[in-house]
Amino acid sequence: MKIVDIKVFVSNPGRNFVTVKIETDEGVFGLGDATLNGRELAVVAYLEEHIKPCLIGKDPHKIEDIWQYLYKGCYWRRGPITMTAIAGIDMALWDIKGKVAGLSVYELLGGKSREKIRVYGHANGQDIDDTLHHLDQLISEGYTAVRLQCAIPGLEGTYGTLAGKKDYFELQSDRPLPPEQLWDTKAYLDFVPELFKKAREKYGNSVDLLHDTHSRLTPIEAARLGKILEPYNLLFLEDSVTAENQSGYKYVREHTTTPLAVGEIFNSIWDAKEIIENQWIDYLRTAATHSGGITPMRRMADFASLYHVRTAPHGPPDISPIGHAAHAHLNSWTPNFGIQEFIGFGGEALNCVFKHPMTFENGHLLVNNKPGLGVEFDEEAASQFPYKRSYLPVSRLKDGTLWNW
């Protein structure tokens, strides 16, 4: 079997997605997700100009060799553009191998470690009552774990909310310039504990609660927050500090027993090495879409298991159903899987373009046993939803300083 073509599709059925299709001389093809929010076209150019010419004629079954070739062969290793492009290729190769073998990807990985995948949803609101209303809705839908995010009084928006929008995670697909938000660390630290106090008063310990600071604190500020939140028994506190300096988590860990999670912007095992081997975190949030695909995620999961760290892959609306399916297969296999972020299956347009193998039931995802990743992609439908430049928000302090450490 030989690779004869690699096609790259950019569509926006609610969010921008970059879909990779590898075609072979035997008619079998594979699909991969190479979406990188806000830098999609850079990944497209990398795939079309630098990867495709190198892979035509190669054997798609040599997944490991191709991964090493793409990672080591370009000299300029790592980085989000490179690793997202490799991820799209890697997923498509696993999809091909599964289809040829007649087996789901989780079977190729070694079979299931669990029958269902626990997920957490997002409850976001403009005030505490609004956030708790959304929490109540998710509990009624069967969720047993929910992330709480709330606008800070006196500020137009914060992470999880956006001024003028009821819910930041609406599939907003047309933001040609980054929206700017005002950030006030003191106001945030004073307010967030009240959100979790009210949630526990209303729901007790019947649901696991999570929170994401989106890397907007210094280590000592994050340590203070973790300490204050200890009575509310969070499943984890996410992205409390940026991790370019991995030892920042050492200082947070020394001051609080609140479990810590980080990793959604990591793009290789090297980004996570120090914080895992020092046991400074409890959950690794790295996504297959941005770290080179399924092949390296297996290694990261095994490495994390040596240090009692669980996986909790990033699962935002700007990962396509192909990427979510890749996570579902990985999560089914990974012995040290913890929990999966889940934002629903999208709207009518998304489900017109992608058909996936997953179902939601009582706070868990179930993945069927279709060969490969089990995702179908409608190229004609995708062409009806052209790319729109769109960016995530940025934060500034009251004096105008760009924030987010």
How would you portray this structure in words?
This protein is an alpha/beta fold and 405 residues long. It contains 13 helices and 18 strands. The protein has helices at 40-55, 63-72, 80-101, 105-109, 128-140, 185-203, 219-229, 248-255, 269-277, 294-305, 321-333, 348-353, 379-382; strands at residues 3-11, 17-24, 29-33, 117-125, 145-150, 180-182, 208-212, 236-238, 260-262, 283-284, 310-311, 340-341, 354-355, 358-361, 364-367, 376-377, 394-396, 402-403. The strands form 4 sheets. Strands 4, 5, 7, 8, 9, 10, 11, 12, 14 and 15 form a 10-stranded mixed sheet that branches. Strand 4, helix 5 (128-140) and strand 5 form a beta-alpha-beta unit. The radius of gyration is 21 Å and the shape is globular.
Which secondary structure elements does this structure contain, and how are they paired or packed?
Layout (H helix, E strand, L loop, with lengths): L2 E9 L5 E8 L4 E5 L6 H16 L7 H10 L7 H22 L3 H5 L7 E9 L2 H13 L4 E6 L29 E3 L2 H19 L4 E5 L6 H11 L6 E3 L9 H8 L4 E3 L6 H9 L5 E2 L9 H12 L4 E2 L9 H13 L6 E2 L6 H6 E2 L2 E4 L2 E4 L8 E2 L1 H4 L11 E3 L5 E2 L2
Parallel strand pairs: 4-5, 4-12, 5-7, 6-17, 7-8, 8-9, 9-10, 10-11
Antiparallel strand pairs: 1-2, 2-3, 4-15, 13-16, 14-15, 17-18
